[in-house]
Amino acid sequence: MNFSEQRRRFLKKLFHPFTFLGAVAAYITGKFAESGRVKSKRVIYDLSDSHLKMGEVKDLGKVFLIRDEEGLFALKAKCTHLGCKPIWNGKLFHCPCHGSEFDLEGDVVHGPAKRHLEALLIKKSGDKLIIFPDRPAPFSQRVKVD
């Protein structure tokens, strides 16, 4: 056996276990991401800095924070047609890309979008509101505020 064959054999033995371990690590990481155990980016809103009025919408970038009679809730700021960001015009969320419109609750008023805006999980922690942009929630979920 010559030197190059020995070296090739040595490298195969060295990297073979690492290839296997890398594949296992990638699989486990993918499973955690699928199950939601990996922390999603959160949006923090300081309730002490601002007080939302009834029917008011606060644009927080990836999410819209809304106050109604029952409390605060959040909608994903992403049109369900092709993913553009809708704009709140005081009455409706209007998608500038293709004209879809959604009411204050996120329901479709005018297409081409066929699905409502997605409600998001929110939690209150002291005087902070934590909004999870990648975690859907039931539309009935509200955070009570004074």
Descriptive notes:
The protein has 2 domains: 1-38; 43-136, Rieske [2Fe-2S] iron-sulphur domain (Rieske Iron-sulfur Protein, 3-layer Sandwich). A 6-stranded antiparallel β-sheet has the order 1-10-9-4-3-2, with no helix packed on it. The protein is elongated, with a radius of gyration of 24 Å. The protein has one helix at 3-35, and strands spanning 43-46, 57-59, 63-68, 71-76, 87-88, 93-94, 101-102, 108-110, 119-125, 128-136. Strand 5 (87-88) and strand 6 (93-94) form a beta hairpin. 23% of the residues lie in helices and 30% in strands. The protein has 146 residues and is of the alpha+beta class. It contains 1 helix and 10 strands. Residues 34-38 have low confidence and may be disordered.
CATH topology of the largest domain: Rieske Iron-sulfur Protein
CATH homologous superfamily caption of the largest domain: Rieske [2Fe-2S] iron-sulphur domain
Low-confidence stretches: 34-38
How many separate structural domains? 2
End-to-end gap: 81 Å
Q: What's the CATH C level of the largest domain?
A: Mainly Beta
Strand content: 25-35%
| Element-level helix/strand string | HEEEEEEEEEE
The CATH architecture of the largest domain is 3-layer Sandwich
The number of helical elements comes to 1
What is the CA-atom radius of gyration, in angstroms? 24 Å
Could you estimate the helical fraction of the residues in percent? Answer: 10-25%
Main sheet attributes: strand count, strand direction, barrel closure: 6 strands, antiparallel
